[in-house]
């Protein structure tokens, strides 16, 4: 993901949604690490972002 303000990311909520962790990329990037349920988690993240 490319973000406007990475500080607004709730890492605990990402874990609740199924994230295995995340990697901060540069100043505005975030890679969310997922397992086999990646598509389900991606849809949940998209719903939260809307």
UniProtKB/TrEMBL annotation:
Keywords: Phosphotransferase system, Transferase. The keyword Repressor does not apply. One of its GO terms (molecular function) is protein-N(PI)-phosphohistidine-sugar phosphotransferase activity. The keyword Heme does not apply. Residues 1-50 form the PTS EIIB type-1 domain. GO terms for biological process: phosphoenolpyruvate-dependent sugar phosphotransferase system. This is PTS system, N-acetylglucosamine-specific IIBC component. It comes from Aggregatibacter aphrophilus (Haemophilus aphrophilus).
């Amino acid at each position: 993901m490319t973000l406007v303000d990475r500080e607004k990311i709730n890492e605990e909520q990402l874990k609740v949604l199924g994230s295995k962790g995340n990697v901060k990329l540069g100043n505005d990037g975030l890679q969310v690490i997922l397992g086999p349920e990646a598509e389900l988690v991606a849809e949940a993240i998209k719903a939260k972002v809307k």
